[in-house]
Write a structure and sequence with these properties.
By secondary structure, the chain is an alpha/beta fold. It folds into 2 domains: 201 residues, Rossmann fold, CATH 3.40.50.720; 89 residues, Alpha-Beta Complex (UDP-galactose 4-epimerase, domain 1), CATH 3.90.25. The chain is built from 11 helices and 13 strands. The strands form 4 sheets. It has a 7-stranded parallel sheet with strand order 3-2-1-4-5-6-11, sandwiched between helices. The chain has a two-stranded parallel sheet with strand order 7-10. Strand 2, helix 2 and strand 3 form a beta-alpha-beta unit. Helix 5 packs parallel to helix 6 and helix 7 packs parallel to helix 9. The longest helix has 21 residues. The structure holds uridine-diphosphate-N-acetylglucosamine. The site of uridine-diphosphate-N-acetylglucosamine has 19 residues, from helix 7 and strand 8.
């Protein structure tokens, strides 16, 4: 067991993806330290067996307190709202970019054995080819993507003498625990909640836009697999200084999502169409084959299974 007995830091460990990762690390026998700015409500949901340090990744003292003794670090903390990053680009620069770069540098100094960064498909911007592969140009459309790209690039240009690190480029992550009411709620969390309560949904645009929805348990497996490879092989790991798309490879339209929900609930939802969101990417889907071939990862949850599970829990 790679993780048993190790101390593992998870920034953003009280958030949607981070909380699933923390559960998995604990079940694998790791001692987990969570660094998160979380509310008291979120703090109460962090398992008692994890050590919680409440603070920002932009605070060097909080980083030191939480992460200085870690064998591995998963870095998920970020200002996750694309809109907020646009409105307050200084905040995004200090948290999403500078604090992440500082954290990476400190991980190198303290000799961390694996640093796994939550990058984003947002770094690709408007797709120039589909499906999107890791060699796609990095042309982010907005501040959020640009700041994620800066950290992604710092990792993918690391040398062999530096901290073993990888950048995982998440596509549209969904699954249990994703809050449908937050300003950056993913469409799946909104639509499943509405399907469950019998309310209608609003589709921005014609509904033929495509996305690549990847289940949070598959994202957690990708993080664990990449972390294991780095811990085992250090900078000789094929994951070191390498970016990977974390996506399902399943391309669906929003109308497909609604049709799948209708088929599961056997109750067609009322659909209203509104104008497409400004500046939105119409088609976004990734090619997961590099991660599949390099690290033997497999996405296991189909969108239909994932939607069924979500509806069962609501
Ligand atoms: C996602 C990320 C964003 C990231 C981008 C790039 C989320 C919530 N957003 O945006 O941070 O920058 O990928 O990879 O994960 N929609 C509706 N009705 C609704 C809500 C959404 O029609 O009530 C539509 C949107 O207009 C969009 C699609 O559903 O066409 C997906 O929306 P969303 O889940 O917000 O994700 P992205 O726009 O892909």
């Amino acid at each position: 067991m790679v993780w048993s007995g190790l101390t593992v830091g998870v920034t953003g460990g009280a958030g949607f993806i981070g909380s699933h990762l923390v559960d998995r690390l604990l079940s694998e026998g790791a001692s987990v330290v969570v660094l998160d700015v979380c509310s008291s409500e979120k703090a109460a949901q962090v398992p008692d067996s994890a050590r919680l340090v409440i603070g920002s990744i932009a605070d060097p003292d909080a980083r030191r307190e939480a992460l200085s003794d870690c064998d591995a670090i998963f870095h998920l903390a970020a200002i996750a709202s694309v809109v907020l990053c646009e409105e307050d680009s200084e905040l995004s620069a200090s948290v999403n970019r500078q604090a992440s770069l500082d954290l990476l540098a400190e991980a190198g100094i303290s000799g961390v054995g694996a640093f796994v960064f939550a990058s984003s498909a947002a770094i690709y911007g408007e797709p120039q080819h589909l499906p999107i592969t890791e060699s796609h140009p990095i042309t982010p459309l907005a501040t959020y993507g640009a700041d994620k790209a800066a950290v992604d690039e710092a990792i993918t240009t690391l040398g062999l003498e530096e901290v073993p690190a990888t950048a995982l480029r998440f596509f549209n992550v969904y699954g249990p625990g994703q809050d449908p009411s937050s300003p950056y709620s993913g469409v799946v969390s909104i639509f499943t909640q509405r399907a469950s309560s019998g309310e209608g949904v609003t589709i921005f645009g014609d509904g033929l836009q495509t996305r690549d929805f990847v289940h949070v348990s598959d994202v957690v497996s990708a993080m664990m697999t990449a972390g294991e490879s780095l811990l085992t092989h250090s900078t000789a790991s094929p994951a070191h200084a390498t970016p990977f798309n974390v996506c399902s490879g399943e391309t669906v339209t929003l109308l497909d999502v609604v049709a799948t929900l209708d088929a599961i609930t056997q109750q067609p939802m009322d659909v209203t169409h509104a104008p497409a969101r400004d500046g939105e990417i119409r088609d976004s889907f990734g090619d997961p084959s590099y991660l599949i071939e390099t690290l033997d990862w497999t996405p296991e949850v189909t969108l239909e299974e994932g939607l069924r599970e979500l509806l069962d829990q609501l």
